[in-house]
From TrEMBL:
It holds the Pfam family Isochorismatase. Residues 4-139 form the Isochorismatase-like domain. It comes from the Bacteria. PANTHER family: ISOCHORISMATASE (PTHR43540:SF14), PEROXYUREIDOACRYLATE/UREIDOACRYLATE AMIDOHYDROLASE-RELATED (PTHR43540). InterPro entries: Isochorismatase-like_dom (IPR000868), Isochorismatase-like_hydrls (IPR050272), Isochorismatase-like_sf (IPR036380). It comes from Neobacillus piezotolerans. The lineage of its organism: Bacteria, Bacillati, Bacillota, Bacilli, Bacillales. One of its GO terms (molecular function) is hydrolase activity. Keywords: Hydrolase. This is Cysteine hydrolase. Belongs to the isochorismatase family.
Amino acid sequence: MGNTALLVIDAQVGIIEGPKFGPVFDKERLLDTMKNVVGKARSEGVPIIFMMDTEIASPISIESQVHPHISPTRDDITITKKAVDAFQFTTLHDYLQTLDIKHLVVMGCKTEYGVDTTCRRATTLGYDVTLVADGHSTTANNVLGAEEIIAHHNCTLHGLDNIENFILVRDSDENIFTHRHSDFKK
């Protein structure tokens, strides 16, 4: 697993539980999935990075904190961000480079914002991405329900490529930390 890291995007109380930005669709299932994936990453020695959006709430409020169901440990890295893109104006790329990470496993909130944007940007920066199909969620908007948004992004992002790097969408019960992208590269 030496070239793989787990990136957890905006899994904060204020998004998952609300009231302003949530609750996200099927939050109990999402939290169970994220807890299982985080646990699997820890048991396999995969580095875990939690991205936290500073625009959610006051930094001292419970809403701004990573959800207690998946709280970071002292071995995990937490990076704050202001932009939807987890790489924009953050130390994320530099940190991943110091670890020689080539493969990112991504999950979190919200699907059409931080998750989508970060997955796409990661490929342009030279990372292969595994999006955890059942490990991201969102809320409905004026056009689509949350379940439709999630399904749309799982379909659209699977196979999305940028020259040499691309996104695979895989279920959490698969061996998601295995970097399988080379199986598809010529």
